[in-house]
Amino acid sequence: MDYIKDTKDAYKTKTKAKAYQEQYTKGFKWARFTMWRQRLIIKRIINKSNFNGNDKILDIPCGAGFIGKILCDTPALITASDISSEMIKRAAGEYVGENFQGFVECDITQTPFKTEYFDCVIILAFMHRLSKEIRDETWKEILRISKKYIIVNYGFDTLPQRLKKRLLKKISSNYLPAPSSISMQDIIAEINSLGLKIISITNVVYFFSGKVIFFLGKK
What we know:
This protein is an alpha/beta fold. It has helices spanning 3-8, 14-25, 30-49, 68-72, 85-91, 132-145, 159-171, 184-193; strands spanning 56-59, 77-82, 100-105, 118-123, 146-155, 196-203, 211-218. The longest helix is centred in the first third of the chain and has 20 residues, at 30-49.
């Protein structure tokens, strides 16, 4: 997988941004169901965290704003960021409320934010698209700008997941699995190496989905 072509620059066109949004919003698609599940998990984590009006939350990359309404329902100050202006345009209607601080177009590995500016940083649908080198760059920046919490999802690799991928590829030629899945053991080792505390681990859908959401705290 080519990170620049397939991820960094891939969603900067209107066509690609539209296709990305529609996989979560139209028809009876597995991606739509898993995003619904992720929203529920994120909402539960956010509610338990009891953010107040002085707290700041960053959604990066925000994509088409699929958790925008959940975040803006909190009293916290919300910022959304993405490298693609086309994705930001599609997310514009999802962040509604006086607590929304606006969009920032930037690369997640080189943001303009101050050190430890955000009480919580949320990274969804991204880590599974990265090589170890780019994940390291991403984590370095996320650790710099976050102060207290990090919510992140990974695509993880197991034998049942590999079997499931083979089956789904035969059933549907349009099926696109996480391109850079790693084992759960390696994910946890990576998180521990960063000095982060694992508060909770939640599978999006047991067996049927290779996505897992981590709620992490800075020590």
